[in-house]
Write a structure and sequence with these properties.
The protein has a domain of about 55 residues. The protein starts with 19 loop residues before the first strand and ends in a 43-residue tail after the last helix. A hairpin with a 4-residue loop joins strand 2 and strand 3. A 3-stranded antiparallel beta sheet has the order 1-2-3, with no helix packed on it. By secondary structure, the protein is mostly loops. Helices cover about 10% and strands about 10% of the residues. The protein has 1 helix and 3 strands; from the N terminus they run βββα.
């Protein structure tokens, strides 16, 4: 069960940081690549608890343009070659 974090609008948002990653470890699902640790709580909250200061490593992610804003012609469906399916009788067995 995830730990409930207090509402604090002034701290950096880990979800918008380039160093924030999701860990494979279910007991510590959040990770900070810059500081090199995994945690049950968001890394910025861990930093606040340990140091008393806000995370100084926060670097915002670059926003990607949505598809509707991108310019240029849309690719034609003709660019995709049809898939030739093999007959199951022609597949060899090991």
């Amino acid at each position: 069960m995830p730990v409930q974090e207090p509402e604090d609008r002034n701290r950096p948002d880990c979800w918008k940081c380039v160093y924030f990653k999701i860990s494979w470890d279910p007991s510590k699902p959040y990770a900070c690549q810059m500081m090199g640790f995994k945690s049950r709580m968001l890394p910025s909250y861990e930093v606040k608890l340990a140091d008393g200061n806000e995370c100084r490593g926060f670097t915002p992610k670059e926003l990607k343009q949505p598809l509707s804003v991108m310019t240029g012609p849309m690719p034609s469906k003709k660019l995709i070659a049809p898939v030739k399916r093999m007959d199951t009788t022609s597949v060899w067995e090991a």
